[in-house]
Design goal:
about 280 residues; mainly beta; outer membrane lipoprotein receptor (LolB), chain A; 14-stranded antiparallel β-sheet; 5 helices; Heat-shock protein Hsp90
Length: about 280
């Protein structure tokens, strides 16, 4: 589920999203102006609305964001610690409750604990939870593919959704998909339905689709963040159903860290890709 590289800051013009856009490069050459038109993909109104509601421009102005994070399924905590990540998603640092460290330096994942080096969930943890946290800002990452918007059931109502898929080779599991739900009143990301093919393949994953519901928003320096995500079983017909897990996010702060903070920790080794 790693979709880590972001485009830069996007200038969003809602009125023009339905039309093809062009990037115009002006080159001066001996008093002659040459105009070079380059076709670029337009941003959909659906994703643009979510980005605006979540103040993407303010978020990406910051260097990094840090928060206390814990997540439990079936009453068992599967991860607890402090997460620090670049706002552009390029680097991630996790300090677990036991003091061990997992780092993504932009190319490799490193772990200081022998247990994490041999645990197949280590790469899942460092890519999955930061991705869920920063999803409102990653909807137009390179390699994202969007299907046509439609209304789907969410709780007692139906709200706008669109399906997100990925080009081959994007992340550890490019076959994953997300059904993204948008609040009809304020355009905030309401939640996502998704599959996790990591370690089991798409066919098995689609037998158990889940949903993450974003709840209890707070505003930090003008940027809204959900402070808990409830995880549920999900079907296309019924939307989210019974709850199966809960993630809590506390002490959200924008931070600035040197690149050395995201470098290979002393004594840490590379965490291999699945199957290697």
């Amino acid at each position: 589920m790693k979709k880590i590289l972001l485009l830069g800051m996007l200038t969003i013009a809602m009125a023009s999203c339905k039309n093809d856009q062009k990037e115009i490069n002006i080159v001066e050459e001996e008093s002659t102006t040459i105009v070079d038109s380059v076709e670029v993909e337009p941003i959909s109104e659906f994703t643009a609305a979510i980005e605006m509601a979540h103040k993407k421009n303010l978020f990406l102005e910051k260097d990094g964001v840090q928060y206390d994070f814990s997540v439990a399924f079936g009453g068992n905590t599967i991860f607890e610690g402090v997460v620090t990540q670049k706002t552009d998603g390029s680097k991630i640092h996790m300090t677990k409750k036991d003091g061990s460290v997992i780092v993504f330096d932009g190319e490799q994942v490193y772990a200081s604990s022998q247990d994490d080096l041999t645990n197949p969930m280590t790469r899942f943890h460092i890519f999955t939870w930061p991705y869920f946290f920063s999803m409102p800002y990653k909807l137009n990452d390179p390699g994202t593919i969007w299907e046509k918007e439609k209304d789907m059931k969410w709780g007692d109502t139906t709200i706008p959704t669109a399906r997100l898929t990925f080009e081959n080779g994007v992340g550890d599991t490019s076959d994953d998909w997300y059904e993204v739900y948008k609040n009809e009143e304020n355009d905030v990301l309401q939640g996502v339905a998704y599959i996790v093919s990591y370690g089991k393949g798409v066919e098995e994953a689609e037998k158990e689709p889940h949903a993450a519901k974003y709840n209890e928003f707070v505003t930090i320096e003008g940027v809204p963040f959900a402070t808990n995500w409830s995880f549920h079983n999900w079907t296309a017909q019924n939307g989210y159903t019974d709850q199966i897990g809960l993630a809590t996010i506390k002490n959200i702060n924008f931070v600035s860290k040197d690149d050395s903070f995201y470098a290979q920790p002393d004594g840490a080794s590379v965490v291999s890709m699945p199957g290697e």
